[in-house]
Write a structure and sequence with these properties.
The chain has one domain: Roll (Thiol Ester Dehydrase, Chain A). 19% of the residues lie in helices and 39% in strands. It is built from two helices and eleven strands, in the order E-E-E-E-E-E-H-E-E-E-E-H-E. The longest helix has 17 residues.
Length: 151
């Protein structure tokens, strides 16, 4: 599996972001994957991982499935179903994949997160769009330019 390029300052995957999750994403040719432990710093209630962090990771794993194919997009819409609570210390496995696309502009994805017991804790779908004008180049430069890390 190859590691997917990341912007070093990203809250989710940036290895230089001191308050970030420092998640690492890999691509197997079909889907993006990420394994992370639910850290107590990101709880919403005592010992319960914040649902917004789970949703953020779902968005990231789905967009990384596109980025792995050098498709630079922005999130237009995501739907996340939080199915079970995640507790501090839980080990989570996220997967995201492209399901279809309309022309070369709109991309559809799906994602899933399971805990260390194999229980599904979240499912998601997403719609991503290729931006116009300079935003597209700015996205590409973020992960390929001097501020990027490509491992």
């Amino acid at each position: 599996m190859k590691e997917i390029a990341a912007y070093t300052g990203c809250f989710v995957c940036g290895q230089d972001n001191n308050i970030g999750l420092k998640a690492r994403f890999f691509y197997d040719g079909e889907k993006a994957v990420c394994d992370i432990t639910a850290h107590e710093l990101y709880t919403g209630y005592k010992d319960i991982y914040h649902g917004g962090i789970v949703m953020t990771l779902m968005d990231e794993v789905m967009i990384k499935a596109l980025l792995a194919e050098e498709v630079f997009v922005v999130t237009a819409e995501i739907t996340v179903r939080l199915k079970r609570p995640v507790y501090s210390g839980d080990r989570l496995h996220f997967e995201g994949r492209k399901t279809r696309q309309k022309k070369d502009v709109i991309y559809f994805t799906e994602g899933v997160a399971v805990n260390q017991d194999g229980v599904t804790v979240a499912e998601a779908t997403g719609r991503y769009v290729r931006p116009k004008n300079d935003l597209s180049g700015k996205l590409r430069q973020s992960v390929q330019g001097k501020d990027a890390e490509s491992r």
